[in-house]
Amino acid sequence: MVPFPSLFALLPLASLSALVSAYDWIPDPAVPGSADGGWQELPQLPGADLITDFPIPGTSAVFPLYQSSGLDTAEVTRAIIVPGAEARDSWSYWITMQNIKMDLASTDSTFNPNTTSIMSPCFLSQNDITAGAGNANQLNWKGGDWFSGDFANGPTNGDNISSFDVLDALVNYYTNASMYPNIQAVVLAGHSAAGQIFQRYAAMRIPTINDDRVNYIVANPGSYLWLVTDRPHQNASCASVNVYDKYKYGLTGGIVGYSTGDFKNLGRDGVVSRYRGRNVHYALGTADNGPGDTGCEASTQGATHLERGDNFISMLNNSNGGMPSSHTVDMIEGVSHQQDQMFNSSQLRERLFKEVTATGSLQNSTTATAAPTGQRSSGSNDAPTAYSASVTLGIAGVAFLSILSGVALL
Ligand SMILES: *[C@@H]1O[C@H](CO)[C@@H](O)[C@H](O)[C@H]1NC(C)=O
Ligand SMILES: *[C@@H]1O[C@H](CO)[C@@H](O)[C@H](O)[C@H]1NC(C)=O
Ligand SMILES: *[C@@H]1O[C@H](CO)[C@@H](O)[C@H](O)[C@H]1NC(C)=O
Ligand SMILES: *[C@@H]1O[C@H](CO)[C@@H](O)[C@H](O)[C@H]1NC(C)=O
Ligand SMILES: *[C@@H]1O[C@H](CO)[C@@H](O)[C@H](O)[C@H]1NC(C)=O
Ligand SMILES: *[C@@H]1O[C@H](CO)[C@@H](O)[C@H](O)[C@H]1NC(C)=O
Ligand SMILES: *[C@@H]1O[C@H](CO)[C@@H](O)[C@H](O)[C@H]1NC(C)=O
Q1: How much distance in Å is there from the Cα of 314 to the middle of ligand 5?
Q2: What is the pTM of this model?
Q3: What's the CATH number where 334 sits?
Q4: Structural domain for 282, as ranges
Q5: Which range is the signal sequence, renumbered to this chain (predicted)?
Q6: Is 181 in the pocket of ligand 3 (CB under 6 A)?
Q7: 21 domain residue, yes or no
């Protein structure tokens, strides 16, 4: 005998069709703790492995992440790497991407979901370690340092492990031919704070042989690494180019530790030219009228997420060589600061799950996977100042606020 009446039996027939779907929609779990005080756990997710000890070259510390479970690595042709945003809610982003993937598979018979691995890296804070989401062997960052590419704060400060080093390790993992022989695209998908890290990584990433298949989706970031010293707006609080154009907002000084040696060799022109050659996909919600970063540096780029994006595109359009041919711009009509609606737009679904920018097969690397530490020996690693003024919110608050106004998020 069935101990409980079936849920379906209790529902009027009319609402039944709404519940029947071709795939299992994963709801966002309630996670104890908060973005402010620290998360108390990283929840287990259906369809994902929570890997708590991914190795990072150059340190004995390890890194936690979610990854699609049960895929045959030889069948995988795409990897999507999607971090959480400022609230470090990586689980929520893995779920969003998984729901979109399964929706696509249920509506498009040419798409086989087993070909796409979704990974959500967990850039934890010190508070997450203390509150219980992380453990003492895991890398963790101060505040928003991870989205500038800054060095981890722990567990071993002197290791000088940048969040860019972590991204290098993840890209190298998926482009390793002995593990993923058929990978065609690695898509780094970032909304808000994660849009910030990927736009900067597109400029700073030290190249590897399979660079051409790495794609960077930059959706609604709170600020950009600007490529020139001019700005569309002025702000008396940061009148000096040494302030408004300092890394992470520009390339006049304060260069992140990961890049100091590299920047010395390449200079601004070299970094800009490398950035122009990468596959960068900007996506702007046309209703994203929130200010996000309220610091003076960001205000010189524009007043809102949307304005900053528009101004950045204009700057590229007006630059020597114009809009780079490997960069794309998608305007997502009517969407505000909402990751699910951005990633689920027809434009980003195509870029996430279909688009291929590299031809030919993967090359095999024989060299070390991480940037040599010698490259940043004279590094400065200035903590960003604008971040500290921003409000951090619990996940419920994030969802609530972003629906209400689309403001206050980076
Ligand atoms: C994406 O859009 C489809 C409709 O095109 C909808 O059924 C689905 O629930 C959406 N997924 C997410 C994660 O918003
Ligand atoms: C994907 O993999 C699952 C589990 O192995 C399998 O049941 C399913 O048929 C596969 N789907 C396709 C389209 O190959
Ligand atoms: C790379 O290595 C894999 C596995 O070791 C091998 O099958 C493949 O042929 C190699 N590819 C190239 C381009 O050398
Ligand atoms: C200038 O920057 C300050 C922060 O230093 C900010 O409060 C102010 O709104 C900015 N002014 C404008 C016009 O954006
Ligand atoms: C940039 O140039 C493209 C054409 O190359 C044009 O479609 C677009 O509107 C321009 N955008 C801005 C913000 O100037
Ligand atoms: C590729 O993966 C294999 C198997 O895990 C590993 O032994 C090798 O060191 C990796 N290669 C690189 C370049 O990281
Ligand atoms: C780590 O970076 C600091 C500057 O941020 C530098 O002084 C130190 O020499 C670096 N350590 C190593 C081992 O590279």
Answers
A1: 7
A2: 0.88
A3: 3.40.50.1820
A4: 31-387
A5: 1-22
A6: yes
A7: no
